[in-house]
Amino acid sequence: MSRSFNFCSGPAALPEAVLKKAQSELLDWHGAGVSVMEMSHRSSEFTSILESAKTRLIRLLDIPSNYEVLFVQGGASTLFAQIPANFIADHTSACYLDTGAWSAKAIKEAKKYTNVVVSGSTKDKNYTTVPAWDSLNLDENAAYLHLTPNETIGGVEFDDLPETDLPIIADLSSTILSRSIDVSKYGMIYAGAQKNVGPAGVVICIVRKDLLERCDNDRLPSTWSFANLAKNNSMINTPPTFAIYLADLVFEWLEGQGGVEAIEKVNEAKAERLYRAIDESKLYSNPIELKYRSRMNVPFVLADESLESLFLQESEEAGLKTLAGHRSVGGMRASIYNAMPMEGVDALIKFMQDFEMRHYGA
């Protein structure tokens, strides 16, 4: 069997070592005689998996003790509505930064629950940069400030945060565990697992405990209340057991790589190498302002758009999968999450250079 290099933005590639371990345990987990997919979520076996996943994540991100770690169903898109439903409480507004397609979707959902203050937007710049923090329109009486530090579709990423006393809620779906962060600067972090953590089906939520006091359990659906989820150890109902199990295996793998600081250095090197190849090319270009280029999602366009379908056809044949850009923006996109090895980036660069020489450089 020959595995391809999968550049999909999500569900994304998983570390091969993780897949092999899951394969070896698929029929019989640690002598239990059943698969994780078959065991009761209330069993001591699964409870140990859940606790292992929480403990590893806390260790990897150095999560302070005044935060809860939750594993939530529904995908990050569900949390676009779940977050304002939980945290608006007696506030009359929430602040949002509009930096790309996903933050725009979050804004649309939040408007169903409260007045949304768009504190800064780069829509007029085609989402190729980030608003200047000193220009933001922040309502300091708002419930929170929501932002998306990495826009998966557009390829914009930032790692600094605005100065504000508002709780900052961040969608880190594409960047969690790819770079070092100070969790204490956030009121809440949430991330769909299907990019850097595991398969689709579970969202990691890291919530400061004082914010849970805002959750109105009498009004909220029981499975939507973050406070209720915390009280019940993420098991109000049957959680996505296999997705949590695989997340734990990914956390274990990441610890074996040296943790977040170590993988961040690898990610920096991968992104630098790919962007350099794009910048040195006459065929390929990246539209994002230099200092806000994403390490995880690298979009690029071809100077000759008529070559796009041929590029995708030949790259697929070369074992380089899922390089088409999002349907809303077109072009190409290479997602190079933690599980993408440097060999995959090198293979992509070699193909891109060869393709340019054969079809554009002559």
TrEMBL record:
Pfam family, one: Aminotran_5
InterPro entries per the UniProt record, alphabetical: Aminotrans_V_dom, Pser_aminoTfrase, PyrdxlP-dep_Trfase, PyrdxlP-dep_Trfase_major, PyrdxlP-dep_Trfase_small
Record text on cofactor binding: Binds 1 pyridoxal phosphate per subunit.
Modified residues annotated as N6-(pyridoxal phosphate)lysine in this record: K195
Residues given in the record as pyridoxal 5'-phosphate binding sites: A76, S77, W102, T152, D171, Q194, N237, T238
GO CC, one annotated term: cytoplasm
Obligatory cofactor(s): pyridoxal 5'-phosphate
Positions annotated to bind L-glutamate: S9, R42
Assigned keywords, A-Z: Amino-acid biosynthesis, Aminotransferase, Cytoplasm, Pyridoxal phosphate, Pyridoxine biosynthesis, Serine biosynthesis, Transferase
Single GO term (MF): pyridoxal phosphate binding
GO biological process: L-serine biosynthetic process; pyridoxine biosynthetic process
Location relative to the cell: Cytoplasm
Pathway assignment: Amino-acid biosynthesis; L-serine biosynthesis; L-serine from 3-phospho-D-glycerate: step 2/3; Cofactor biosynthesis; pyridoxine 5'-phosphate biosynthesis; pyridoxine 5'-phosphate from D-erythrose 4-phosphate: step 3/5
Enzyme Commission code(s) on record: 2.6.1.52
SUPFAM superfamilies associated with the record: PLP-dependent transferases
Subunit structure, as described in the record: Homodimer.
Similarity section: Belongs to the class-V pyridoxal-phosphate-dependent aminotransferase family. SerC subfamily.
Reported function: Catalyzes the reversible conversion of 3-phosphohydroxypyruvate to phosphoserine and of 3-hydroxy-2-oxo-4-phosphonooxybutanoate to phosphohydroxythreonine.
NCBIfam families, alphabetized: PRK05355.1, serC_1
Protein name stated in the entry: Phosphoserine aminotransferase
Species the sequence originates in: Marinomonas balearica
